[in-house]
């Protein structure tokens, strides 16, 4: 026991060290991944700003290059044709506030603003640049300054030289600082400390977002360590980390130089903001590590006391298993267990006694050897089946088996457990019952068919007597003959209805997919005369297509509609509505009328054969078999039929279901 306890403590220490190591590694990975993600995002934003600023500068460069190409030294200051060209060209570049041409000493000779011609711009950085770099062919972007028109602008300038390389003129476009401010504000990083700056080749801030009270616009960042490191790298783009040059906070910054103009884009965020999203995860890691350590220590302490409990529980499980296995063996049903692959793992003693084979013969697929060859397909898949199983005497018995899935402790499928009972006697009784029903139907058909012949003879001879005797018959005898003929005719109608009832299912048309709309149309055609006589109307919605017997469906609609016409209210034209509604696995068809209605106590009686709620001669008479035929048709198709009525003279609704 002491050795086991020492082993437990050893593994507890291993777990604690592992958890601490995993926590440290996960925390380090989180910081690295977050920094890498931030680097990619900041660099992507710097590319966006570079593209938009570069596009703007390139467009201005083309504008000034066009102005230089069109310029001629012979133009007098303020030349109208050249000024017209400048004005027209400036319209295609909305970023340019003005376009001016100055001499090397700063005197304006041409401008889109005529009031500036002749004035001297004074000390400008672009003049100093081209004096210091007389051979430069690059566009120069200045720091923000106040123009002659008393507004803050940024100048973009390009020089034109003569054949000897001397500067002839300097072409200058004034830009609004908001041009660059709009670009950087649209691309701000998502962090609260996110910032973007744009500087010219002298590292003077041209734009920064967000704006600051300290007004960093125009400040030089030439000596900021992060920018110095970027320039020293000699790369167009670099990632630097350190104290920022404007707010003095530790930042991660993506720097990118826009060539060939020497402008620098800086997109940054503070390290604290970048790592802030991972703090909850880091705290969670530490909390989880502490919980695991505490759990490991507690587990070692309680493990010793739980060992006895575990052994006791294991003994109880074994006893329970033996008990339930004994119960399964003694159950009077055939029990079989299969794994998830359909292989038999166990059969109970009832199975072995029934089949006469040892349980080992039933393992895997061996149990199928006792099943009739014609019934083996699909049994291994589980579910509910009836099949023939060989008894120990070699005869076959019909077995009704139900298999239900089993799951393990984790809820995963673990095969199935099947239980079967011998239904041989029940099946034999059912077969005899079906045979008896078939014989009864055949008897009813033959008997009713043969009974019509004597009735026809009675009716015929009664008519013959009436014609032969003529006036010799007394009124009483004529009344007797009329009673006899009427009885024979009613009996004949009863037999015809009985014949029709017996033919349902036995002599119906073969079942297939039937459009009930067409069946309703046929029923309406058969009842056309009765509908016309009573001024009846039928309103029917769309009906479904079902698997059924077409002539049965026609007969069903015909009887229900005829019933609605027959039991109409006096003086009220029959109005019949037919509708269909989809239900789970079935369609419900309803036939509603505005007739005399039905009392609730007669709901079941009206569907019985030869049952009438009214006198023999009321409502046109009848045999009382129509609704019985409807009930037999619906039930033979696997449905049911019922009636609802609000009461006398409130109409009735006959509804029936058919499988979808």
Automatic annotation (TrEMBL):
Q: Where is the PAC domain?
A: 383-435
> What's its top-level EC category?
transferase
**Record-listed E.C. numbers:** 2.7.13.3
Transferase among the record's keywords?
Answer: yes
In this protein, which residues make up the domain named PAS? 320-394
Q: Which GO terms describe its molecular function?
A: phosphorelay sensor kinase activity
Q: Name one Pfam family in it.
A: PAS_3
| Transmembrane spans | 9-28, 282-302
Q: Which SMART domains match?
A: HATPase_c, HisKA, PAC, PAS
Catalyzed reaction equations: ATP + protein L-histidine = ADP + protein N-phospho-L-histidine
Q: Where is the Histidine kinase domain?
A: 446-660
Q: Which UniProt keywords apply?
A: Kinase, Membrane, Phosphoprotein, Transferase, Transmembrane, Transmembrane helix
Q: Does the keyword Metal-binding apply?
A: no
Do you know which NCBIfam families this protein is assigned to? Answer: sensory_box
What name does the UniProt record give this protein?
histidine kinase
Q: Which organism is it from?
A: Magnetospirillum gryphiswaldense
């Amino acid at each position: 026991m002491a050795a086991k306890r020492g082993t437990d403590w050893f593994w507890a220490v291993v777990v604690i060290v592992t958890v601490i190591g995993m926590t440290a590694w996960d925390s380090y990975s989180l910081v690295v991944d977050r920094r890498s993600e931030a680097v990619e995002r900041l660099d992507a934003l710097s590319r966006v700003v570079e593209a938009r600023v570069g596009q703007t500068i390139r467009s201005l460069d083309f504008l000034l290059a066009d102005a230089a190409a069109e310029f001629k030294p012979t133009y007098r200051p303020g030349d109208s044709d050249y000024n017209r060209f400048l004005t027209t060209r400036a319209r295609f570049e909305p970023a340019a506030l003005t376009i001016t041409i100055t001499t090397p000493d700063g005197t304006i000779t041409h401008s889109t603003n005529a009031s500036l011609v002749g004035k001297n711009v004074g000390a400008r950085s672009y003049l100093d640049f081209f004096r210091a770099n007389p051979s430069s062919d690059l566009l120069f972007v200045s720091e923000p300054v106040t123009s002659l028109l008393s507004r803050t602008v940024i100048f973009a300038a390009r020089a034109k030289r003569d054949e000897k390389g001397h500067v002839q003129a300097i072409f200058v476009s004034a830009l609004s600082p908001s041009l660059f401010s709009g670009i950087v504000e649209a691309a701000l990083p998502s962090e609260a400390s996110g910032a973007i700056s744009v500087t010219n080749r002298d590292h003077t801030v041209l734009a920064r977002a967000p704006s600051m009270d300290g007004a960093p616009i125009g400040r030089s960042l030439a000596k900021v360590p992060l920018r110095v490191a970027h320039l020293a790298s000699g790369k167009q783009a670099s990632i630097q980390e350190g104290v920022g040059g404007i707010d003095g906070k530790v930042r991660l910054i993506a720097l990118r130089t826009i060539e060939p103009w020497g402008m620098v884009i800086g997109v940054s965020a503070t390290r604290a903001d970048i790592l802030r999203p991972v703090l909850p995860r880091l705290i969670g890691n530490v909390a989880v590590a502490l919980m695991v350590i505490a759990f490991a220590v507690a587990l070692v302490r309680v493990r010793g006391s739980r060992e006895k409990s575990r052994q006791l529980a294991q003994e109880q499980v074994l006893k329970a298993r033996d008990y339930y296995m004994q119960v399964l063996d003694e159950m009077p049903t055939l029990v079989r267990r299969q794994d998830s692959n359909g292989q038999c793992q166990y059969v109970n003693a009832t199975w072995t006694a029934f089949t006469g084979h040892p349980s080992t013969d039933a393992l895997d697929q061996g149990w199928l050897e006792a099943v009739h060859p014609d019934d083996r397909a699909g049994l291994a898949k589980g579910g509910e089946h009836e099949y023939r199983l060989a008894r120990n005497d070699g005869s076959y018995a019909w077995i009704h088996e139900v298999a239900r899935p089993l799951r393990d402790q984790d809820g995963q499928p673990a095969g199935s457990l099947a239980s079967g009972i011998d239904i041989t006697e029940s099946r034999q009784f059912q077969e005899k019952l079906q045979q008896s029903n078939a014989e009864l139907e055949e008897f009813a058909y033959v008997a009713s068919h043969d009974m019509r012949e004597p009735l026809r003879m009675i009716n015929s001879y009664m008519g013959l007597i009436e014609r032969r005797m003529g006036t010799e018959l007394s009124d009483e005898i004529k009344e007797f003959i009329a009673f006899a003929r009427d009885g024979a005719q009613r009996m004949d109608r009863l037999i015809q209805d009985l014949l029709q009832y017996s033919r349902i299912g036995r002599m119906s048309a073969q079942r297939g997919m039937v459009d009930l709309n067409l069946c309703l149309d046929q029923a309406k055609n058969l009842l056309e005369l009765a509908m016309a006589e009573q001024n009846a109307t039928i309103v029917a919605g769309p009906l479904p297509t079902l698997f059924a017997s077409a002539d049965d469906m026609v007969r069903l609609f015909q009887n229900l509609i005829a019933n609605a016409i027959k039991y109409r209210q006096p003086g009220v034209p029959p109005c019949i509505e037919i509708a269909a509604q989809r239900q789970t696995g079935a369609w419900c068809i309803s036939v509603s009328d505005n007739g005399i209605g039905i009392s609730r106590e007669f709901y079941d009686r009206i569907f019985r054969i030869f049952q009438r709620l009214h006198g023999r001669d009321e409502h046109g008479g009848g045999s009382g078999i129509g609704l019985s035929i409807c009930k037999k048709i619906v039930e033979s198709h696997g449905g049911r039929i019922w009636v609802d009525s609000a009461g006398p003279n409130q109409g009735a609704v006959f509804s029936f279901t058919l499988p979808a």
